[in-house]
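Quick one, probably user error.
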């Protein structure tokens, strides 16, 4: 059932009991808790120097302030809006504390992003009595210790638990029982399902599929002709079927890439203007690759133009690297193949084809000096903060990019490198 009141639902016969916990207006709520003067006020969190709203408090949302608005639009919607520059360390620390609380109830916790996670509590029901009990205890613990609220969904799988947590915000608890899945999905727009974005929604609309009920009854062969192997998965999603497990960090596959991207403070054109950002991103990628003792053989560069067209290319090296200068040179070679007369709003650098290995110094003196220099810079930056020591040409770009942590950030292990 879809629950809007505290109820008791028999879950012991469910094949799995999955919870999805989603923090409410996370960045904004953390800012309000850390600064009592902001509590009850309409606020919007923005990146350093970038005029785009990352998230807004519920007080601001009531006026129509939305993620992705520029500051002028947000101010027009809410003249009394307070802008707050995001603090990554604060959000990361809070997220880590919340995840630790979740693990008090089950070891099966999958961090989906900085402000949401899945919990498989199937094996915890005998200990705590019910998933509802776990949900209420977790919500109360987070509120008591951190002053934050969350919305929780409970369902037989991750797809439905994620859907349920979105049904009542803020501070909600929603249960979707197996016997009511078809009813819940029948008239639900397909866009409400996690994994169906605007492009897929548009392509489904071209096939006259608008609701989950229609998607669940669609011809698998027809969808496979349009979406390939994902066509079968889409039909299963429309039926509310999802067998994917909750995967704790220690069971995750090795990371496949290390990357950073940056939305620029303003759209820029020309190789020289972009080179400074590419260098900064290359240093960020190199530093985290070195921290986690991986090297990459393929360097990727992605740019997004002012009209939101995104293009990317890659270049494979003769040998893998985590040296920032080498990553930068390869990325710049790729940059020279793009049309740089068009305004660019985002730049991303990434390495793939990773090799995981124990740290050791290179054999040759020149390479050994590079490694020692990088290690010294890394040590200083670990101690004094990001870019406390950096290349001179990066300095004038500092504070120009948007440094608000991505909602997709994960606090465990190498996942921390995928910050945007």
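Nope, works fine. Designed sequence:
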């Amino acid at each position: 059932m879809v629950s809007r009141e505290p109820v008791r639902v028999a879950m012991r016969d469910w094949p799995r009991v999955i919870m999805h916990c989603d923090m409410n207006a996370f960045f904004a709520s953390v800012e309000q808790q850390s600064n009592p003067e902001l509590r009850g006020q309409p606020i919007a969190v923005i990146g350093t120097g970038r005029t785009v709203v990352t998230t807004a408090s519920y007080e601001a949302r009531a006026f129509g302030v939305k993620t992705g608005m520029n500051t002028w639009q947000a101010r027009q919607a809410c003249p009394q809006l307070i802008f707050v520059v995001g603090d990554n360390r604060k959000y990361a620390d809070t997220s880590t504390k919340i995840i630790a609380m979740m693990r008090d109830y089950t070891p099966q916790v999958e961090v989906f992003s900085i402000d949401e996670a899945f919990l498989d509590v199937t094996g915890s029901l005998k200990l705590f009595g019910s998933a509802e009990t776990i949900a209420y205890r977790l919500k109360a613990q987070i509120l008591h210790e951190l002053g934050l609220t969350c919305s929780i969904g409970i369902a037989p799988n991750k797809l439905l638990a994620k859907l349920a947590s979105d049904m009542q915000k803020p501070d909600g608890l929603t249960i979707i029982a197996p016997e009511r899945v078809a009813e819940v999905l029948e008239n639900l727009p397909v866009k409400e399902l996690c994994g169906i974005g605007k492009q897929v929604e548009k392509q489904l609309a071209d096939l006259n599929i608008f609701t989950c009920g229609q998607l669940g009854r669609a011809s698998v062969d027809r969808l496979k002709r349009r979406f390939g192997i994902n066509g079968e998965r889409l039909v299963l999603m429309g039926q509310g079927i999802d067998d994917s497990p909750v995967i704790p960090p220690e069971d995750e596959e090795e990371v496949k890439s290390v990357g950073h991207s940056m939305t620029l403070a303003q759209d820029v054109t020309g190789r020289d203007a972009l080179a400074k950002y590419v260098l900064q991103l290359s240093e960020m990628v190199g530093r985290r690759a070195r921290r986690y003792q991986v090297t990459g053989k393929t360097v990727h560069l992605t740019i997004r133009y002012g009209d939101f067209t995104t293009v990317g290319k890659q270049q494979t090296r003769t040998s893998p690297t985590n040296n920032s200068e080498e990553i930068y040179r390869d990325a710049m070679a790729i940059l020279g193949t793009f049309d740089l007369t068009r305004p660019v709003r985002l730049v991303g650098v990434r390495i793939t084809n990773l090799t995981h290995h124990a740290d050791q110094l290179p054999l040759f003196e020149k390479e050994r000096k590079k490694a020692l220099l990088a290690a010294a810079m890394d040590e200083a930056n670990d101690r004094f903060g990001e870019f406390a020591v950096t290349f001179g040409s990066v300095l004038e770009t500092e504070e120009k990019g948007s440094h608000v942590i991505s909602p997709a950030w994960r606090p465990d292990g190498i996942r921390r490198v995928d910050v945007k």
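The longest strand covers residues 344-356.
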